Amino acid sequence: MLSIKNIHANVEGKEILKGINLEIKAGEVHAIMGPNGSGKSTLASVLAGREQYEVTAGEVSFLDKNLLELSPEDRAREGLFLAFQYPVEIPGVSTTNFIKAAVNEKRKYHGLEPLDSVSFLKIMKEKMKLVEIDQSLLSRSINEGFSGGEKKRNEIFQMAMLEPKLAILDETDSGLDIDALRIVANGINKLHSPERAVLVITHYQRLLDYIQPDYVHVLYNGRIVKSGTKELALELEEKGYDFITEGVDLNA
Amino acid sequence: MKENQDPLEQAVSNDYKYGFVTDIDTDTIAKGLNEDVIRLISHKKNEPEWMLEWRLKAYAYWLTMVEPEWANIKYPTIDYQDIIYYAAPKPKKQLNSLDEVDPELLSTFEKLGISLSEQKRLSGVAVDVVMDSVSIATSFKEQLAEIGVIFCSISEAIQLHPELVKKHLGSIVPMTDNYFAALNSAVFTDGSFCYIPKGVRCPMELSTYFRINTENAGQFERTLIVAEDESYVSYLEGCTAPMRDENQLHAAVVELIAMEKAEIKYSTVQNWYPGDKEGKGGIYNFVTKRGICKGDHSKISWTQVETGSAITWKYPSVILKGDYSIGEFYSVAFTNNHQQADTGTKMTHLGKNTRSRIVAKGISAGHSQNSYRGLVRASKQAINARNYSQCDSLLLGDKCGAHTFPYIEVKNKTAIVEHEATTSKIGEDQLFYCRQRGIDPEAAVALIVNGFAKEVMNQLPMEFAIEAQKLLTISMEGSVG
C-alpha cells in the first residue's frame, strides 16, 4: 500500500530525514517510535504533503501512485489521513460543516454524488458512537475552545467519517489522560480492517498497550535504526532510547 | 512536490459576474454640473418648486465646500464636470404594470438574479429597481398599500406624498452635513421611499436594487425610511455595475427615522464593480447613511456586506436620541486587488440607557487597504449608555493592509464603552489542515473567510444570507493557488 524508498527531506535547508525506507501493507499496523527531534513528525508531514518540507531524494508510492506528485488534497482524497498532533482552530466553521465539505470533496474526486444532509447525518450518528463524541461538540466551531482530549477525539471522528486507506496518527496520545487515551485507541481499533493500514507515531509505548502494532520501528536522527515486533516497544519502555541510540554513528 | 510559493496570493483573481452592459435607449443629458443642470433634472422629474429650491440651496452650499481628505484612501481628483448627472432608460410607453417593462430591462434584471415578472417574483420580498437615475419598477406596491405601507421611488413620493418627504428629507443628513451629502442633495435622481404607519409590522422584506448602466454617469440615490410608533421594517439594498476602465461615482444618502418602539433593520449587499486586477476602473462609492432612534425603545440595525467598489467611504450611523434605544452595526468588508475601503460607523448616545453594538469584520487580500473607522460618543445626558465594539481583521497574503481607527468620546461617568480588536492572517496551518482533509485551497479559504464573517452574515435576512455568502466566495475566487 505504502512504499517509502530512501526519502530525504529538508526543512529550511536543514536535512531532517536522511534516507527512510518503509513498506506498509494493507491491514498492517506499524508504529514509529523515537526520541524528540528524531524526525517522526517530519515524516508524517512529508507524507501528507506539507509544503514547507522539501523532499530532496527518494520515492514514495501509495496505492501504486507516485505520492510525491500529488497535491495534499489529492493525497487525502486518495485515502491518506493524518491525525494532527496539534489540530488547528477555524473560528466560525462548525465541525459538522467542515467534515461535510471534506466528505463531499472526496466523493466528488471519486465521481460520486455529494451526500444529502439526511444521509450525512445518519452516517455521522453511527460514527459518533465509535469515538464516543458528543453532538454538541460537532456543532461548535472546529477545535475552537476544545480540550486536548476533545481535539484528538475529533481527529479520530474525522478519520471515521473519511474512511481512509492509510491513517497516520501523529502523537495522537500526547496530552491525553488515560480515559481519553482508551476512547481514542478504541476508536482506532474499531476502524482497523484488513483493507486499512495504520501508522502510529508516538514517543511513548503506552498507546501501544491499546493498539497492537504488527511492527515497531525506531526512528533516530532521520533514519530508521531498528525495526522489530511489539516486543521492541516494550524493550524501549524498559531500557529507554539510549540502548538503541548508543553506538549509532551520527555522522554516517 | 513543489507548488507555487504563495498559495494565498493567487486567490485574488477577479470574476465579476455582473459586468455586462445593457444596450438600451437612454435619455442622457450632457456632462457637467451647474444650476441649469439641476433645473433640468428637476424639470425632467416634474418636481414641485420647493424641491428645486432645496436642490439649488444644496448646490450653492456644495460650491463652498472642499472634498474631505481625512479618510485612508487614495484616488485621483474627481472632475465633477466630467460626469453625467442624469441618465434614464427611455420608456417605450406609459407603464401600467410591471409586465409592460421593456423586455431588455427585464432580462437585465433576470441576469442579476432579480425577477420582475409577476409570476417569478421572490415571494415575501418587494423590490424597487433603480437603473442609473430612475426607478423602473416597484413590486407589491398595491398589496403593501392595503396595510398602509408606502413603498415607492422617492420621485413618486415627492409627487404623491410631498408632506412626508418635506418633513423628513434632510432632517437626519442635512444638506450641509458633508461634501458628498451636499452634492447628493443637489443632484439626487431616484431612490426608495418607505413609510411604515403606526403599529404595522411590514409583512415582507422591502428591497431596492441599484444598477448603474450608462457610461460616465454618476448615480446619486436618495433613500428615506420612516417607521412610525411600534412599527417594524426590514429593508435590503443591493447594487452592481458594468465593468469599465473609467471610474464612476456613486454618492448616495440614506436616512432612517425610527419613532417610539419602532425597529428598522437595514441590510446592504454592496457589489459595485471593484475595478480590474491592476486597479483600473471601478466605482467610487461615497455614501452617507444615518438613522435616528427618535422615540424611546426604538432600534436601528445596520448590516452591510461590502465586496465591491474601487473605493468605499461609508459610515452607517445611529443617533440614539430616545431613551432605551438600541443601535447596531454589523459589517463585513472584503477588499481585493487594489480596492480601498474606509468604512465603519458612528454611534451617538444622547438618550438614557441607550445601547449600541458594533461588529466589524475586515478581510483584505491582494494589494488592498481595508480600514475600520468608528466613533462612539456618549453625551452628558446619556446616563448608563453602553457600547460594545468588536473589530476583527483577517489578512490574506502579505501585500494588503488592515487598519483600525476607533474614536471614543465619553462625557459622562456612567457610560461603559468596550472595544476589542484582533488581526489575524489565514495561517498556513489552517490551509494545510483543510487540504489534508481533501478540501482544495480555494474552497478552504472560502470556508475560513465565511467562518470569520459568520457572526455578521447571520444578521442578514435568510433570502439574502445565502446570496451574500456566495458573493463573498466569488469575490475571493483565485485568492489561492
Automatic annotation (TrEMBL), chain A:
- NCBIfam families, per database record: sufC
Q: Which GO terms describe its molecular function?
A: ATP binding; ATP hydrolysis activity
**Protein name per UniProt:** Fe-S cluster assembly ATPase SufC
Q: Which UniProt keywords apply?
A: ATP-binding, Nucleotide-binding
Look up the domain of life of the source. Bacteria
InterPro entries the record matches: AAA+_ATPase, ABC_transporter-like_ATP-bd, FeS-cluster_ATPase_SufC, P-loop_NTPase
Q: Which family does the entry's similarity section mention?
A: Belongs to the ABC transporter superfamily. Ycf16 family.
Q: Where is the ABC transporter domain?
A: 2-246
Q: Which gene encodes it?
A: sufC
Automatic annotation (TrEMBL), chain B:
Q: Where is the SUF system FeS cluster assembly SufBD N-terminal domain?
A: 122-202
Report the record's Gene Ontology biological process terms.
Answer: iron-sulfur cluster assembly
Residue span, SUF system FeS cluster assembly SufBD core domain: 210-452
Q: Which family does it belong to?
A: Belongs to the iron-sulfur cluster assembly SufBD family.
Which protein is depicted?
A: Fe-S cluster assembly protein SufB
Give the gene that encodes this protein: sufB
